[in-house]
């Protein structure tokens, strides 16, 4: 056990004695470790504890049971790149230009990445003396200057973008990409010439995706063992269950949910290994582990995509299924176990971890995060009251308390965009599936949300679009 | 603690020593108590442990965690009367005439009820010396001869049919009924002149539905206290969360899910009281408690209906949402805790309980139940391989292992009936939402299921229709 544990627990004890009238973050004199485990395209409904009938996730379920299972936990965007920009910077991607009118995510042929002017959560925690390491998918720029090791991470072992990129088959137009997923070639590793990198060097190409979940975990565990004496921040971002789906021999065919379930069960197994390693090293009590996913399930992939459970739509959409995710917080002995129905967001991690690490928040920019400490440690109401749902650089919807107003609606991957003069209104606590429109019944809520939007827009400076420029056009256009 | 507990636990211990090679039911020399808790119209997705984000069900979640959470657990029909006939008799309702071409459920003006020739689970357990009591909704006939006390129960305290019947407002045609649910009158107890009965006597009319969940539970707990020295069977069938929704003062406005959530949380609270009472009386370890619901959520009731989670459609439908339900088994110390993805059905309770009670199964009729003991106590595969989904007296679909073939499809409450020459095929383990039709890929499965249907039909003798006859026509027809 490292020496920080005792102080951390003592601080919590004092906070409890004091009746929780001051936030826990003020009490922590020492620095807990942080581990973010980030799945890719896993849906709200894909864990047994979130209601999936055939995917078995005993480790994540245990994490949820011993810790807190958040049921209104949001990502910053419904697709990969902007969602990752949001968790990394604690800001809406529209502020840092990581979302665009032209393209939804970065491609291997994209010119840019996360602007250097942005402060990542890793850079932020380094200010507090943290060791920082990333394992897995990045997707915030694959040019050297944009890679994790140039954005606050001491170390990185992973893949620079999505595991479906660098397809080796000829693609002449975007439709070829969708057709490919019905072909047999999608099952071959060699169809995806993706690079596995260590820091700035490519060490394997194509990456063997069958073993990639396990290898990311091995490296993370190694890091935990080597760095347990000092506070650390680990960002463990699995490439899966994004398509193409690959499982190891041990897991292929294991689940009743088909290959998708095998892949999720393999991730669950490896999350269990991380928890076990933290326990074995005696630092679980001084670590906060968060598990979530970057966006909703990619429904157009049919059985190879996941499930948003009872939520509407999925990846790519500003309906709940696109942006609400499992959110599990685990820190044995520190968190009040239970189900938390308060609002939270991946953007809150930047703020919350900064507070717990004793690092000042930057005051030269707008942050979109809240400090969740008092909800995590004292069971208080979350300070988060709103969520802004952007598609590209346009605000589509706003959640305010139990309500959600849709100014624009559009299916995940269809051109059925519809703007609403009076926004569509849903009470997503009463009606999480967004079935029963109630704007006529609650004009006062619309008025309140309109004001929130007005306020939001006042301060909104959109970052220059980092996604629009391509070095070349792979479709020859 | 009654004396049966020790023997029951000893038998289990011996079974474990023997490596589980023989079924536990053969080991039980004594008679455990049975409690069936049956909700009404609660959907697959309405408990937190089955994925609902805002309904908090800590007691049922605890039951699921300490016991077994079944995720492929089916009722015998997608509407009340036949579903209740199925759990009572361990038989498909088509065999006992409790399903019909003409009407879906019994009405207060129906002539008939469950035929006396049927053997109820209560009659069956009485043969084994059990005390038997029913609390709550019956809906298998409201003429005296059809009431619980004339069908194997020593005692009954409850309502003879659904809590939305006996509406006091004028209804001239069926559409008036649906319009009523948009009116303010639906919120008044006095709009429902339903009788609360003790045995064969009406003791309150209209029943005060605000307190009915609590009062059923009070009576059940009283029964437990008074009968703990001898084996008993309790059937605790709450009228709620069927519309009209009513909660007590303590629960109204408590949940984030609106009145529906309040009602479910009140049921959860009362289920917790039953568990507590069993513990307090020292008989929890010698009792098997089962919690389930009679059919899927009544989706046409909008926010006043529940959710089937990721399952398709709801009450009234042979899609999964109509007939798959939460199924929680709890018996502290006896069941191997975990999530069970094997097939089970309410019809299996008749068979399983008979075995555990040492009562011979009737040999003069076809039973549709399986003995689930070895799955419950030894973690073995379920003996159930099939499920037959009837709508009225017509077979619509058949589940066989992971597959489900739809011979006829129809939405819950629409006239869009469609027969399929080649049945629609789904793998409901891989695709629980029944989205991806795969008959072309698996002709061998169709062949196998066709054979199962042929075999099923050979032995099928439909009971005389008990639902079609009315004493009078309330619509003046």
TrEMBL record, chains A, B:
<dbReference type="InterPro" id="IPR024607">
    <property type="entry name" value="Sulfatase_CS"/>
</dbReference>
<dbReference type="Pfam" id="PF14707">
    <property type="entry name" value="Sulfatase_C"/>
</dbReference>
<dbReference type="GO" id="GO:0004065">
    <property type="term" value="F:arylsulfatase activity"/>
</dbReference>
<dbReference type="InterPro" id="IPR000917">
    <property type="entry name" value="Sulfatase_N"/>
</dbReference>
<keyword id="KW-0378">Hydrolase</keyword>
<keyword id="KW-0325">Glycoprotein</keyword>
<keyword id="KW-0106">Calcium</keyword>
<comment type="similarity">
    <text>Belongs to the sulfatase family.</text>
</comment>
<dbReference type="InterPro" id="IPR050738">
    <property type="entry name" value="Sulfatase"/>
</dbReference>
<protein>
    <submittedName>
        <fullName>Arylsulfatase A</fullName>
    </submittedName>
</protein>
<keyword id="KW-0479">Metal-binding</keyword>
<feature type="domain" description="Sulfatase N-terminal">
    <location>
        <begin position="32"/>
        <end position="359"/>
    </location>
</feature>
<keyword id="KW-0732">Signal</keyword>
<dbReference type="InterPro" id="IPR017850">
    <property type="entry name" value="Alkaline_phosphatase_core_sf"/>
</dbReference>
<dbReference type="Pfam" id="PF00884">
    <property type="entry name" value="Sulfatase"/>
</dbReference>
<dbReference type="GO" id="GO:0046872">
    <property type="term" value="F:metal ion binding"/>
</dbReference>
